[in-house]
Amino acid sequence: MKNLAEVSNSEQLAFISSFDHVLSDLDDISFYYLGVIWLLYKPLPDVSACINSLRRNGKMVHFVSNNSTVPTDVLKERLSSCGIQAEDENIITPIKAILAYLKKIQFNKKLYVIGLNWIKTLLREEGFSILEGPLVVEESIPSLFSHLNDDENIGAVLVEFDININYIKLQQAVTYLKRKDCIFIVGAGDARLPFGIGHLIGPHYYINILSDFSGREPLKIAKPSIYYNDFIKERFNNMSNPSRVLFIGDSISEDMAFASKCGYQKLLVLTGLTKKENLSNWEHPEEHKPEYYVESLSVLNRIMETCPSSSI
Prior knowledge:
alpha/beta, 2 domains, 16 strands, metal-binding, HAD-SF_hydro_IIA, HAD-like_sf
């Protein structure tokens, strides 16, 4: 694993010339992000300059997120506020991939959804019938069981980040998942969501509860699942050669793992979840190691500026 800023100019040029498409990590939660593009939704230094430099040199740039807390138009606005222009189709999120999957299999039953209201609204707008669990029930066993009747019209349980997660929602989901014909779909399964000085509990834990009690393994449609990449390949059908695609990210367990599974080149950025000490104390599978890392996109931008455009 090499620091891209410390290799020879010829090696830098060879690296930059080795890819045509860039998939940049764009993970965040509603109020906080520390990663590749921004910090607390303020752009990290030279980020827009780096993105523009990549585009100017003929690279197609797309943004890939595991975000389940805000719609695409909000991400688009935040990118714009950072000086980065992106069309809706250039921003990839789990809910987009999940919608595409449901349409591909011609899903025509009801969806039981654990997730935020904007996701339920979007699913309804796309023509899907939604059932959601109650927030409050009477605190008695008879009342509990009155909410746990199976409904064979429920054909899938979809689990995403849910601020209003509760016991009855989980128990209701287990009831449906006991039927093998009920599809179990999940988006991002993060255990911890970084938030300011601490962390929020991620959906990983309640996904595990559902999996444990139902005996079902979910279909995960988010990084680092290969199913997420199926959607990306269908969305960008000109990305036919994965070895000519560079994935830029700050997370080893998600971004680098995802890139490895997909056969993409990897560039690790140290402005987010991964720090330099994590590189010397490597605790991940060897195949997740990128060939290069950079301290920030500002460094990558400087490298791009020193490479002659005619040679890229």
